[in-house]
């Protein structure tokens, strides 16, 4: 169950080239609490330091350091010699995630910087490296407890509290090198259209200026069978190619669609030629699927979709936000499927691209959610908007993603219920997201106080099914702000109302076993029987409410002090997974 281009640990599975080098592993590391590094030119003469294991942050045991106290600035150094694959090529340095503001020096020269803890970014370091001897890569990272930077579930106080956990500072995803020709494919945006049985490729090229004999070919296969081969001349930086995905040899079209039941993926290779010489080859894949809303129903491939989702925060005991391995990602997806869920809501985190790859391969639906700020001001608006507009294009090609969630529970927009400028901010993000991706639903403020939103999502941690049924028996009362959530919140912000959107209970449950440490939602239970009875009661009530289109249970695993997972934080089931599955599918 892999695509043709799959390579274990390759950090960007939808854009695969053969010449690359993984820079994870041991780096020199230093704290800089006095912020003396730049004036002291640590980028040229690195101070006495310790070793850190990248991509784990210093707060984690997996890093080899394991200090949870906040530090506002840290430095990294990596010494390396370029491999032979770099000869006569451009050298691109990729960072999949650095929290929060990263600055890069190569051999003592400043290269550039990036701000944002969740988006991937890259630098062309070709002018700064030497081929014949050792190179010094130096990275400084500035982080803070500021609530104006998108931080998701990272705490902004010295100690963890409520549902906020140890902060993440520095490099927390893979760092790697890629070796490419000057003329190359920079990116490809892939848009399926199942109604027309077409796929559209929007290419951004690099280094094509001054060349008049470039040709780009796309070779599409499905299950090793040829589907289509097309080409076009490259005469500008932005190119569009649209082609049919009907098999040239015929075959049943609907059996080729992507869905949880049949996660079919088309392999595609993009090959750039200069004359007859191949100068770039990128391997990728796509899924032919459609997510839409009609008459208050969510449709997948033009058929009704009932979503059985689980909340997934993506934390691990020894590595926090960083997956300890690719196998750990796969194990989580398999556990979710084993419990009868067909999807997940990735909560307050932009997950590793390999996780989305395996969701694509295994047919796991995903709601992709932005990490929240916790203040509203001009700085927070600018930081949030800039990073979200990086993330949406980076994740666009994954067929598993069926919903965008930029805001959650009014976090970062605390007065959205009545303050117009906060409402306008969420509207702006909704429309900017739609400008990049008009094909997926956008949930503007998951939980309550919606402004413009394609789905009405509600968070309700009522414990008993009979209480849920009593509260939700009258749909008109619920959607017209007649029911309060979280004691004082309502479905819509002032000035907004229900327009026939599908309704999903996107957080509920959170049942915890009896414990003196940690917390869950509502009363704790003392036995497996009590847990399953309460779980069946509330799940059954949601499924029995005819106007509700799906649900999202809180949550897959415990996370630090929050102990309401179906699994412990080290992934041990608290109740048999097959019993959860039986209730979910019953």
Plain-language structure description:
- The chain folds into three domains: 20-180, Jelly Rolls; 184-286, Immunoglobulins (Immunoglobulin-like), CATH 2.60.40; 298-585, Glycosidases (TIM Barrel).
- The chain is 16% helix and 30% strand.
- A hairpin with a 4-residue loop joins strand 13 (184-193) and strand 14.
- The two termini are 28 Å apart.
- The chain is globular, with a radius of gyration of 24 Å.
- The protein contains eight helices and 29 strands.
- The longest helix is centred in the middle third of the chain and has 18 residues, at 378-395.
- The chain is an alpha+beta fold.
- The model has no long low-confidence stretch (mean pLDDT 95).
- Residues 183-289 form the Glycoside hydrolase family 2 immunoglobulin-like beta-sandwich domain.
- This is Beta-glucuronidase.
- Pfam families: Glyco_hydro_2 (PF00703), Glyco_hydro_2_C (PF02836), Glyco_hydro_2_N (PF02837).
- Residues 22-141 form the Glycosyl hydrolases family 2 sugar binding domain.
Secondary-structure topology with pairs:
Elements: E1 20-22, E2 25-31, E3 50-54, E4 73-80, E5 90-95, E6 98-99, E7 101-106, E8 109-115, E9 121-124, E10 135-142, E11 170-171, E12 175-180, E13 184-193, E14 198-206, E15 214-222, E16 225-234, E17 238-244, E18 266-274, E19 277-286, E20 291-294, E21 297-300, E22 303-304, E23 307-312, H1 326-338, E24 343-346, H2 353-362, E25 365-369, H3 378-395, E26 401-405, H4 420-436, E27 456-459, H5 465-472, H6 475-479, E28 503-509, H7 528-543, E29 548-554, H8 577-585
Parallel strand pairs: 23-24, 23-29, 24-25, 25-26, 27-28, 28-29
Antiparallel strand pairs: 1-12, 2-3, 2-4, 4-10, 5-9, 5-12, 6-11, 7-8, 7-10, 13-14, 14-17, 15-16, 15-18, 18-19, 20-21, 21-22
């Amino acid at each position: 169950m892999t695509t043709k281009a799959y390579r274990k640990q390759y950090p960007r599975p939808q854009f695969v080239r053969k010449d690359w080098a993984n820079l994870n592993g041991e780096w020199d590391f230093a704290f800089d609490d006095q912020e003396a590094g730049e004036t002291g030119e640590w980028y040229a003469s690195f101070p006495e330091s310790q070793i850190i294991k990248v991509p784990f942050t210093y707060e984690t045991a997996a890093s080899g350091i394991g200090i949870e106290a906040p530090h506002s600035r840290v430095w990294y150094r990596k010494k390396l010699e370029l491999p032979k694959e770099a000869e006569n090529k451009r050298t691109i340095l990729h960072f999949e995630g650095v929290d929060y503001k990263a600055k890069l020096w190569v051999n003592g020269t400043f290269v550039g910087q990036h701000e944002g803890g969740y988006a991937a970014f890259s630098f062309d370091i070709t002018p700064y490296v030497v081929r014949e001897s050792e190179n010094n890569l130096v990275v400084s990272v500035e982080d803070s407890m500021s609530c104006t930077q998108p931080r998701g579930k990272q705490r902004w106080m010295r100690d963890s509290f409520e549902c906020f956990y140890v902060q993440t500072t520095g490099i927390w995803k893979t760092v790697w090198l890629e070796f490419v020709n000057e003329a190359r494919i920079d990116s490809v945006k892939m848009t399926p259209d199942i109604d027309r049985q077409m796929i559209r490729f929007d290419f951004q090229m690099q280094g094509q200026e001054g060349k008049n004999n470039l040709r780009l070919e796309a070779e599409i296969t499905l299950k090793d069978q040829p589907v289509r081969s097309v080409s076009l001349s490259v005469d500008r930086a932005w190119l569009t190619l649209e082609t049919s995905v009907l098999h040239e040899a015929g075959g049943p079209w609907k059996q080729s669609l992507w869905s949880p039941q049949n996660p079919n993926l088309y392999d595609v290779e993009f090959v750039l030629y200069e004359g007859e010489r191949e100068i770039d080859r990128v391997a990728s894949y796509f899924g032919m699927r459609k997510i839409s809303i009609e008459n208050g129903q969510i449709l997948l491939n033009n058929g009704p979709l009932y979503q059985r989702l689980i909340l997934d925060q993506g934390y691990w005991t020894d590595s926090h936000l960083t997956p300890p391995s690719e196998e750990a990602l796969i194990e989580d997806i398999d556990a979710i499927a084993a419990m009868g869920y067909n999807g997940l809501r990735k909560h307050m985190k932009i997950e590793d691209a390999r996780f989305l790859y395996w969701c694509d391969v295994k047919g796991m639906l995903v709601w992709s959610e932005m990490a929240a700020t916790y203040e509203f001001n001009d700085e927070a608006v600018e930081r949030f908007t800039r990073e979200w507009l990086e993330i949406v294009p980076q994740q666009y090609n994954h067929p598993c993603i069926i919903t965008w969630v930029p805001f959650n529970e009014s976090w970062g927009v605390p007065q959205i219920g009545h303050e117009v400028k906060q409402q306008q901010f969420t509207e702006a993000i909704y429309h900017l997201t739609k400008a990049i991706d008009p094909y997926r639903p956008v949930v503007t403020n998951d939980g309550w106080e919606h402004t413009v939103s394609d789905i009405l999502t509600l968070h309700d941690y009522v414990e008993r099914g009979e209480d849920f049924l009593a509260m939700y028996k009258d749909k008109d009362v619920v959607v017209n702000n007649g029911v309060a959530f979280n004691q004082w919140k309502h479905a819509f912000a002032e000035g907004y109302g229900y327009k026939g959107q599908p309704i999903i209970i996107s957080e509920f449950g959170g049942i915890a076993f009896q414990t003196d440490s940690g917390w869950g939602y509502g009363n704790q239970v003392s036995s497996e029987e009590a847990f399953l009875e309460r779980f069946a009661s509330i799940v059954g009530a949601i499924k029995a409410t005819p106007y509700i289109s799906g649900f999202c249970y809180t949550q897959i695993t415990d996370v630090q002090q929050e102990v309401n997972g179906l699994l412990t934080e080290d992934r041990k089931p608290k109740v048999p997974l097959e019993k959860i599955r039986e209730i979910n599918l019953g």
